[in-house]
Amino acid sequence: MYKLSQKLADIIHHDHQLLPVINRFGVRLGFGDQSVEDICIAHNINAEFFIEIMNTYHDPDYFPRERFLDFPLPLIVDYLKKTHHYYYTWYIPEIEKQLNELIASAPGESNLSLLTKFYLKFKQELHEHLQYEDKFTFPYALNLHDLFVQGSNAKRTESTPVKSIADYEEEHSDVDSKLLDLKNIIIKYLQAGYDDNKCNTLLTTLFNFEDDLRDHARIEDKIMVPKVLQIEKLLFPS
Amino acid sequence: MNTRVLIIHQSAIIAEGLQKLMQNSSLQLHDHLRIYMDPSEINLHPATNYIFITSDLLFQKLYNTQLIHLNMANYRFIKLISEAQDGNKFTGNESIHLDETQNQIVDKIRFAVNSFLPEKTSVIGTLTERETEILKLVSLGNASKEIADKLNISTHTVITHRKNITEKLGIKSISGLTVYAILNKIIDTNELSIDDLI
Fold first, then answer.
1. Set of chain A residues whose Cβ sits within 8 Å of the Cβ of B195
2. What is the ipTM of this complex?
3. CA of B186 to nearest chain A CA: how many angstroms apart?
């Protein structure tokens, strides 16, 4: 497990997949030999939260539920929002670019167009899912948090179609399985008439994206949702 | 077919200790786990798989009185080594040392249990005729109920077939299955627009 006293540079050398994670917190490279703690202080980041996010991202078997549940809800939602932003602005366009390059490497391969079609379907579902959360779920969670913290001074937003956070809990599986399908179609069923290196690049991106999504979904399902449910129970005991 | 684990050992401490350790594990053997001190007391059933965990001392007796009648495909044998072997440690799945951890021991037994399961890999990627037929109908946009009506089988059967198809191909979504069906010419895209399908 990484510790606050460790140099962030050492951690990145150890697991470079954490690069996008530190970016999500607003940390950029060129931090010299500073420890994680010092960097967090300089950037006004909750250091405990930062290191736990790093550790869970690094080790899929590590998930300190109890510790996460102690962090304030806005902190968690903010991280989830930033992750969405990263998907919109980087992962999705990048996958698309790599897919297009792969297809361009094999003119006349009509089967590759099937891949594009399937990808677009996946993208559409992913977009809908992310947008739904950005538009309804996250604001609902934050609004509930405000209500709880400020008592009667805050008003419950009525515009959200979400009745309870529990209503949306099951939505991740479709997106996950489509991504897995996409990988399997490429790995197992598509005859390789294309540039191998371009395909490897795309697959590597898909694998990384899958890991990122898994980690993201875990924080939503196991931390955000239970936290909101807890507030719901306290605010609206029925 | 059932799989039973039989611990055959002259020492009650060792046999019962091992039994306890397995009962407290995730192996879920329940009443398929038995202890014997004398191999000749065992009553083997046909159509049952056996995993024998036994000492060197009793192995020969076990073999002579019991295994000689049994089909080799139906049993696995794990040697239980209680004496310290000077530096010469077996690490394979065919032996258990008394100083191994619960996890190590359980893993070896699980490996033996799993070795009786039918080879799944041999069928991956190859669908039966019926499965291909169902895959085709799924790809063309039919729901399970419609497929059941068309083929005159129960919806439950269709769902089972669909589960097997997904397991074999590693593809879960309908549009993913459609891509597979087109790639493998299970559906004819000359007559149908791909845009409508995926």
1. 117
2. 0.83
3. 13
Identify whether the C-beta of residue A5 lies closer than 8 Å to the C-beta of residue A11: no
State whether residue B17 sits within 8 Å of chain A by CB. no
* Bridging pattern class, strands B75-81 and B48-54: parallel
Q: What are phi and psi of A171, to 5 degrees?
A: -75, -10
Tell me whether residues B171 and A181 touch, CB distance under 8 A. Answer: yes
Question: What distance in Å separates residue A155's CA from the closest CA in chain B?
Answer: 41
Nearest CA in chain B to A121: B198
**Strands B75-81 vs B33-36: parallel, antiparallel or unpaired:** unpaired
Q: Give the H or E element holding residue B138.
A: helix B129-139
Which DSSP letter does residue B69 get? G
User: CA nearest A122 in B: which residue?
Assistant: B175
Q: Please give, rounded to a whole number of angstroms, the shortest distance from the CA of B144 to a CA of chain A.
A: 18
Which stretches within chain A are classed as H helix?
Answer: 8-14, 19-24, 36-43, 47-58, 65-70, 73-86, 92-104, 110-132, 138-150, 172-184, 196-219, 225-235
pLDDT in tens, chain A (238 residues): 899 999 999 999 999 999 999 999 999 999 999 999 999 999 999 999 999 999 999 988 788 888 888 899 999 999 999 999 999 999 999 999 999 999 999 887 778 888 999 999 999 999 999 998 999 889 989 988 988 888 755 556 554 555 677 776 556 667 888 999 999 999 999 888 889 999 999 999 999 999 999 889 889 988 899 899 888 888 877 6
Cβ contact B179–A184 (<8 Å): no
- pTM comes to 0.68
Task: Give chain B positions within 8 Å (CB) of A118.
Answer: 175-176, 179, 198
